UniProtKB/TrEMBL annotation:
Keywords: Hydrolase. This is Dienelactone hydrolase domain-containing protein. Residues 66-244 form the Dienelactone hydrolase domain. One of its GO terms (molecular function) is serine-type endopeptidase activity. InterPro entries: AB_hydrolase_fold, Dienelactn_hydro, FrsA_esterase, Pept_S9_AS. GO terms for biological process: proteolysis. Pfam families: DLH.
Length: 342
């Protein structure tokens, strides 16, 4: 009788998984040092001397950190800001898979408010790069995180930031003391920026785009991937049969009002931006607004969820990040460890 009434023993694996999910869901706001450059070149012209307090949401895995610390991921936002069903959801998901994750909020860090288009006009690539490198330093300062195994992952505009952060001249502008991200992941990244001299940090790059995405040029993305390869990085470029933001909630196709497909700029080694076809400088709000007014298309692009592509892209990310569990990936990280006798 006792054996029939006795409750079954708890499934410790299920309990551990539930605890991991609960802790991952309990993200909390943190502050860290960043800067507010309008253009990347500003980092060499005084912006570094005027730090700001940036903020983001930190998600930590459950349990004790492994020897050496958890690997980390910085998530760079798209122009829509850190969304509950995208950046925040991936922050929790990555923490469940053992990565300490910091989701940037580059709008809140600069008190940028208002309609999405207005906010997007005020936020520049240089600002998000500043927050990304500031977050990298912050994660590296925490004892439970291995600062040499921190990747960056971005969506749309943030995906472009993730790609640009792989180039050595940019890393040198934002983090002149050395180091850099251990890996770079870009989801449906804007194909706006190419680097004139594409030397990279040596960290690998994963780029995933949709063939039907009118906001992204597949041909130009292929050129960006080749730039990264020539610069010294291993690159995985995955082109899926889908639209923009395949991992969102839009079961039915949704049109977005403009696209950046024809916006092409060249980033110089010193951080200066130039319009690719004319060589004209983009050095402030007025020249940037003029460039956007003459290159942004009002034809728009389509957003639609694709469950199968989401499954495949998530699997690609986990496979790609497995290297972070084995040690530093970037050339800079390997050199630093060698110098420390590790």
């Amino acid at each position: 009788m006792w054996s029939r009434c006795r409750r079954p023993a708890p499934d410790m694996g299920s309990i551990a998984m539930a605890e991991a999910r609960q802790k991952a869901q309990d993200g909390h706001t943190v502050s860290f040092r960043s800067w507010n450059p309008y253009m990347p070149r500003d980092m060499a012209e005084g912006a570094r001397d005027r730090p700001i307090e940036a903020q983001g949401t930190l998600y930590l895995p459950a349990g004790e950190a492994p020897p050496g610390g958890w690997p980390g991921v910085v998530i760079a936002q798209g122009l829509g800001g850190p969304m509950r069903n995208r950046e925040m959801a991936y922050g929790r998901w990555l923490a469940e898979h053992g990565h300490a994750t910091l989701v940037l909020d580059s709008y809140a860090s600069r008190n940028i408010r208002g309609p999405e288009t207005w906010k997007a006009l005020r936020l520049t690539t240089a600002m998000v790069l500043a927050d990304a490198f500031g977050a990298l330093a912050y994660l590296g300062s925490r004892p439970e995180i291995d600062g040499e195994r921190v990747a960056i992952k971005g969506y749309s505009y943030g995906g472009m930031v993730s790609q640009v952060a792989a180039f050595e001249p940019i890393r040198d502008l934002y983090q002149p003391e050395g180091g850099g991200f251990a890996a770079h992941i870009a989801y449906y990244s804007c194909s706006v920026v190419r680097m004139k001299e594409p030397e990279t940090t040596g960290a690998p790059v994963l780029i995933m785009i949709g063939e039907r995405d009118r906001n992204v040029s597949v041909e130009r993305t292929q050129k960006i991937a080749e730039d990264l390869r020539r610069g010294g990085s291993d690159v995985r470029l995955k082109v899926f049969d889908c639209y923009h933001q395949w991992d969102g909630d839009d079961v039915e196709p949704r049109r977005f009002g403009f696209h950046l497909r024809h916006c092409h700029v060249e980033l110089q080694p010193d951080g200066e931006l130039r319009v690719e076809e004319s060589g004209r400088k983009i050095d402030g709000p007025l020249s940037r607004l003029l460039f956007l007014a003459t290159h942004v298309s009002s034809r728009g692009y389509t957003i639609q969820k694709n469950r199968e592509v989401t499954r495949r892209s998530n699997a690609e990310v986990l496979d790609f990040l497995d290297g972070l569990r084995r040690g530093p990936i970037s050339r800079a990280g390997q050199a630093r460890r060698a110098g420390q006798g590790r």
